[in-house]
Structure formats: structure tokens, C-alpha cells
């Protein structure tokens, strides 16, 4: 059960306190794409996503995007960002997180993972001892396949307190 609980929980990426992560010894931030940075229907990074990615870099974090999305979608989104990325990652498989850690040259202890899904993003990263940050999914037209998963997430989230914004 504890592997399904994120270390931090925010409404969205803009709320994540980057100075606090730095103080905790985090050196790299691995980030999910769909419904975390932008919704599935957004082909290229929104201003908000760009601002977040730029902030990460200006704070000196190594950044990597890992997505279960298809290669062409992820290729197009990250084009020109100069950020390492993994498409078709198969989260929550450990393999994809290990690849991302290699890309950011970081041990799990010094990495944080930002994602919107408890059963893939949070669970997978927690199993490796990566600091986990859950954000609310960006509203998107979702495949009905997701409904049961989102329902179970809702039940779990009822027991997770949102993190303080100013720490
Ligand atoms: Mg996602």
C-alpha cells in the first residue's frame, strides 16, 4: 500500500517547490508527459510546461521525460527541447525507470519522479526508492479504459493529503 502513496501531492506542476527538492538532495527530475506536463491533445509543449521545464533546468536539475505514449507523439512533443526522453516506456516496469536514471546519471535517492498516475508513475518510482510527486491529471478526453483506474485512484487520493505549498 505504501508503494502507492506519493511523497508529495500537488494540484499541478507549477506548484512543485523546486528549492525544497534541491534542499532534499534531489539532483534530477524525471517527468511523465501525458496529463502531467500537457494533455494528450497538446502536440507541443504549452507555455506552462515550457516554464516548468525551464525552471527545472535553471535550478540545475537534470531532466528526463518518460512516457508510455507512442514514439511519434513523444518525438514531436520533445523536439527541440534538448531533453533526454523515453517513449513507449512501459511504466510501471522497473526497466524504464532504470533507463531514465541512467539518462540523468543519478541514483534513485537523488531523483524525483513527477506524474499523474498512482498505479503507473507513483508505484513504479516508489518501488525503486525514487522520490515521488503526484499531480492531478490535466483534463483530457480519456479513453474509457482509464475509468476504472481513475476510480481506484480517487479512493486512494481521499487518504492522501495535498502537500504544503510553502515549505
Ligand atoms: Mg500521465
Structural class: alpha/beta
CATH class: Alpha Beta
Mean of pLDDT: 93
Question: What would you call the shape?
Answer: globular
CATH superfamily: HAD superfamily/HAD-like
Strand content: 5-15%
Structure description:
By secondary structure, the chain is α/β, with parallel strands linked by helices. The protein has a single domain (2-157), classed as Rossmann fold (3-Layer(aba) Sandwich), CATH 3.40.50.1000. Helices cover 34% and strands 14% of the residues. The protein is built from six helices and six strands; from the N terminus they run βαβαβαβαβαβα. The chain has helices spanning 18-23, 47-58, 71-78, 94-103, 118-127, 147-157; strands at 8-10, 28-31, 62-66, 85-86, 111-115, 131-135. The protein has a six-stranded parallel beta sheet with strand order 1-6-5-2-3-4, sandwiched between helices. The longest helix is centred in the first third of the chain and has 12 residues, at 47-58. It is globular, with a radius of gyration of 14 Å. The chain starts with 7 loop residues before the first strand and ends in a 10-residue tail after the last helix. The mean pLDDT is 93. Residues 32, 34-36, 115-117 line the site of magnesium ion.
Keywords:
alpha/beta, Rossmann fold, 6-stranded parallel β-sheet, binds magnesium ion
Topology:
Elements: E1 8-10, H1 18-23, E2 28-31, H2 47-58, E3 62-66, H3 71-78, E4 85-86, H4 94-103, E5 111-115, H5 118-127, E6 131-135, H6 147-157
Parallel strand pairs: 1-6, 2-3, 2-5, 3-4, 5-6
The structure holds magnesium ion.
Magnesium ion is lined by residues 32, 34-36, 115-117.
Amino acid at each position: 500500500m505504501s508503494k502507492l502513496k506519493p511523497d508529495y501531492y500537488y494540484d499541478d506542476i507549477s506548484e512543485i517547490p523546486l528549492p525544497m527538492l534541491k534542499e532534499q538532495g534531489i539532483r534530477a527530475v524525471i517527468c511523465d508527459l501525458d496529463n502531467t506536463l500537457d494533455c494528450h491533445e497538446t502536440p507541443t509543449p504549452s507555455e506552462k510546461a515550457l516554464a516548468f521545464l525551464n525552471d527545472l533546468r535553471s535550478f540545475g536539475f537534470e531532466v528526463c521525460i518518460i512516457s508510455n505514449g507512442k514514439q511519434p507523439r513523444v518525438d514531436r512533443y520533445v523536439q527541440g527541447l534538448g531533453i533526454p526522453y523515453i517513449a513507449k516506456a512501459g511504466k510501471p516496469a522497473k526497466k524504464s525507470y532504470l533507463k531514465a536514471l541512467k539518462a540523468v546519471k543519478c541514483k534513485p535517492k537523488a531523483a524525483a519522479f513527477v506524474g499523474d498516475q498512482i498505479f503507473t508513475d507513483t508505484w513504479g518510482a516508489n518501488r525503486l526508492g525514487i522520490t515521488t510527486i503526484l499531480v492531478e491529471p490535466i483534463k483530457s478526453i480519456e479513453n474509457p479504459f482509464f475509468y476504472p483506474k481513475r476510480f481506484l485512484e480517487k479512493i486512494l487520493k481521499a487518504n492522501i493529503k495535498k502537500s504544503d505549498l510553502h515549505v
